[in-house]
Every structure is written in C-alpha cells, then in structure tokens.
Amino acid sequence: MAESNWYVAHTYSGYENKVKANIEKTIENRHLEDEILEVRVPMQDVVEVKNGAKKTVQKKMFPGYVLINMVMNDDTWYVVRNTRGVTGFVGPGSKPVPLTEAEMRSLGIQEENINIDFAEGDMIVVIAGAWKDTLAAVQKIDYSKQTVTINVELFGRETPVEISFTDIRKSQ
After folding, report:
1. Are residues 163 and 172 in contact, defined by beta-carbon separation less than 8 angstroms?
2. CATH class of segment(s) 5-106
3. Where do the structural domains in the chain lie, given as residue ranges?
4. Are 24 and 66 in contact (CB under 8 A)?
5. String of b and e for 12-45 (b: at least 16 CB within 10 Å)?
C-alpha cells in the first residue's frame, strides 16, 4: 500500500464541517477506507468574555480549511476535489503538497506512537512542567493528542489538567 500523508483542502468559509461529513459519506459509499484514512477540522478552545462571564468555546483553527490524511492517487484526488464546498487543495496549481512532520506536530497530530505503561485509574507522577512532583490518578487518556487528563487541586477545587505522555511516569 502507498504511504498516506496529510493534505489541506480549501473550502468555502463555514462549510468545513459539511465538507468533512460529505467526504466521510463518500469514503463509506465508495469503500475508500484504506485510501482516505481521516478527515479533520482542527479546533481550539478559546475563552470568550460575554456580559462579564468567561466561557470556553471551540473555534476553528483554520477557517476555510480541512485536513485530510490520505493516499494521494487519481481516485482520492478526484473524490476530494469534487466534493461540494471544496475549492481545491493547498499547493501550486493542481498539485497538492503534503504537510511536513513539523507542521503536523504543531497541529497536535503525531505520527509516532508512544507506548504507555499506565491506564485510566492508575496513579502517575508528573515529572516536568507546572505540576511537577504532583501525584494523581489518570482520569482520561487521549492517544491522538498523546495526553492524559488528571485532576489537581486548584484553589480548593478539583480541576482537570491535560499533561503530555512525556511529562509523566507511573507511580511505584
């Protein structure tokens, strides 16, 4: 099988989620699961203040763009390019350019898998960062972002905090 890469498709602004749904439906209908592996609309948490109240909302990191992990060939190019709402791929002319490893890492997309020796409910010790030497139980594991969520006491309350796999170790 050919190697898959991440590509960026340009869409009409506001159509990102529709394009994602349409591509996923086409993948299912044409049985392209082995060629188009994943479609993402990168989101980020943003704190907004409205009427004096802080509220965390999710906003698109790149309005007008959708990330697609796929094997580039004539079929996959045609499917994505002819999806309603897609205006084209990012790249010179009609030749899509895949994202580099560094670009993917900055988006929180890691290709290399890290094997971990803990599971939800296990006690871990934070070995780096602001919560160094904190002992806590793993609440949630996110393999795609390679983070664990733990609860720490902050101002007398239990607060969930995301910590990278590389900044923790299993407690003895």
Report:
1. no
2. alpha beta
3. 5-106, 123-170
4. no
5. eeebbeebbebbeeebeeeebeebbeebbbeeee
Assigned CATH for 123-170? 2.30.30.30
Q: Report the distance separating Cα 118 and Cα 138, nearest Å.
A: 8
Give residue-wise pLDDT tens across range 106-116. 776 655 556 67
Distance from C-alpha of 135 to C-alpha of 78, rounded to nearest angstrom? 51
Residues 118/126, Cβ–Cβ less than 8 Å: no
| Secondary structure class of 26 (helix, strand, coil) | helix
Q: CA neighbours within 13 Å on the CB side: how many for 51?
A: 0
Beta-bridge partners for 113: none
Q: Is 53 exposed, middle or buried (0-12, 13-18, 19+ CB in 10 A)?
A: exposed
Mean pLDDT computed over 27-31: 91
Closest CA to 121 of 136, 135, 137: 137
Specify the pTM: 0.60
